[in-house]
Amino acid sequence: MTTSTQKIIYTITDEAPALATHSLLPIIRSFAAAAGIEVDTSDISVAARVLAAFPERLSEEQRVPDALAELGELTQSPDANIIKLPNISASVPQLRAAIAELQSQGYDVPEYVEDPKTDEDKENKARYSKILGSAVNPVLREGNSDRRAPAAVKAFVRKYPHSMGAWSKASQSHADYMKGGDFFSSEQSITMPEAGAVRIEFVGKDGSVEVRKELALQKGEVLDSMFMSANKLRDFFEGTLNDCKATGVMWSLHVKATMMKISHPIVFGHAVTVYYKDLFDKWGETFDQIGVNPNNGLSSVYDKIKQLPESQQEEILQDIHDCYAERPEMAMVDSVKGITNLHVPSDVIVDASMPAMIRNSGQMWGRDGKQKDTKAVMPESTYARIYQEVINFCKTNGAFDPTTMGTIPNVGLMAQKAEEYGSHDKTFEMTADGTMRVVDAASGDVLMQHDVEEGDIWRACQTKDAPIRDWVKLAVTRARNSDTPAIFWLDPERAHDMQLKAKVEEYLIDHDLAGLDIRIMGYNNAIRESMERAIRGQDTISVTGNVLRDYLTDLFPIMELGTSAKMLSIVPLMAGGGMYETGAGGSAPKHVQQLVEENHLRWDSLGEFLALAASLEDMGMKYDNPSARLLGQALDKATGHILENNKSPSRKVGELDNRGSHFYLAMYWAQELASQSDNPALADVFKPLAEQMAANEQKIVDELNAVQGAPVDIGGYYHADPAKASVAMRPSATLNGLLDSLSV
Ligand SMILES: NC(=O)C1=CN([C@@H]2O[C@H](COP(=O)(O)OP(=O)(O)OC[C@H]3O[C@@H](n4cnc5c(N)ncnc54)[C@H](OP(=O)(O)O)[C@@H]3O)[C@@H](O)[C@H]2O)C=CC1
Ligand SMILES: O=C(O)CCC(=O)C(=O)O
Ligand SMILES: [Mg+2]
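The joint structure predicted for all components is written out below.
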């Protein structure tokens, strides 16, 4: 029996996954309908979020609901069943591009004014600030994270391994990080003995006190504070550049300006003004006048100087050029188009960029398009150290071998904006020298304090107790279910981790640990132990905080599977519902470029297939709906056939792409449903479809592949025309007709 509550919400997001959805969703809907399950959508794309923020400026037809707020509310319901695809976490240049596109389509959304003077501009900026950066995931992640490579995917990779760049013992590549003056060095942490409130205050040199934020804290909540010295950061950058210049190693910066949306753009901005120091020394005043913001990358210079006379523009371009002669070679994002590592803050995102470099023999691409040894600059030493461990390991042992290596799944503390990824509203760039302090509101006691200087970045992070308990439980459950050792990565050098360690030790006692191997280790030891075991074919669960969750669920999947898109990524919501994230990576902007240029979409929807199967099975169990369970089990088998028969998308135009892989999924899924005997009625529904698909296999594949090789118009990048995108993504009339026949 199905009821109206048995509904799956499938998110509409951005870029490649959004395009793939035009092809996959009609298939999912047709199949789910046969089992009485409704699949609704929720548009949380950056364009939809911009439109939802300005209803008063739009006509009735142009308005869209605040889907993200609605979905956020749904996470509090035990009935929630959400399939969450990756979405753009927009940097300022990306947000501006989305706004410009919407304006060109006739939507009267306002400009994003970075330095607003009028009340209206200020109000608009406040609305846009809720859209900038990683603004979706933190709202929806009301549970902790369980990411792993399913056994079928591991088995496939062992048979058909991806390429891995060889490592040389002579490689000069390394990670470089601050040895003092960073967040790691200054971290302080407390646990609230009772519920209470604190004030975050700045005390000026003259003794004046300015309250920056008031926070209500729960009993058992962990509160951290820390700062990064701007002067030491700049000295560090200068040192890394001089070192590269002296040794001939290429320089690159790896930060997470999207998720750390306040602190990392500032760090990125310092890198820009240090690398292009001569340029900013000479033109600083002019740049201030025309509104250049280095936190948005060198693209901001290119963009803003358009207002200047042409002769001045040329002089500036020449000065930029001169910086390249002065400074060491910098890693390129696109050497053909001349786009460097410092162009925009969202092109090189550490979770994906470091594993890509490590997989590629520790090298990145230079100005001449050639691969080179690279210094990966990651100022925050807290987490950068793990990459140096991986690099050391690869230099000693060679590249990881996907055909023999074990797996390193992750259980991550993530719920309720845990740790640094929830720190944005408590991050401040100092405007004067003084002291930042956290004061108990009731007693007036100073709980934590730091002496800071103008320009320093100070931040506080919260981690609530209930998510920590849930995380410990999830780790024990995963260790038990997969019979695998689990390591809690808690660093003895970190104040925050020591607060967590006390809790972990206490909460572990609540569980039956008989026969389980659960350890607590510092980061360096934890990663070394996990890698040592992995190259011996042994599996180890990493149980980590939020940032390591993010980093490790790209790092190890990229070594093990070639991409984190092949991960199963589940968020058991604390209120009882389920969110099924797809893969562990992002929205693959380069894939859109390829589709538009040659009508080939190389996006692999494997993550979506895995997520949907888990969602259907959960629905089946929760509502005692055998049809849903059957659909889920059949889908998992179909996904297995996709892998065994190598029907995943190819990277090359003219070959099977995303759309073709969806066809095969539908065919295998229908065949599995048709051949099962548990539910004869369902088998009868799918038999004709399975037969027709098999009979028309070649015709459908030909129709799908025939459109490739020429550019295609989808009517927009951030806000594509749904009709055009649907036509582009569903080019087989035969397949469309067969799916329609199922729904009638
Ligand atoms: N959960 C979320 O919502 C997340 C969102 N993001 C957002 O995604 C955007 C891009 O981030 P970026 O760091 O470049 O990382 P991506 O994961 O999008 O891209 C890195 C590369 O991984 C490969 N890849 C990723 N997913 C797939 C897939 N399903 N099929 C095939 N290949 C895949 C592609 O390699 P190739 O090009 O070689 O084919 C891609 O270029 C940003 O806007 C970021 O904010 C990032 C991470 C998570
Ligand atoms: O929300 C984002 O910006 C990125 C999320 C991410 O990278 C992850 O969860 O792995
Ligand atoms: Mg990530």
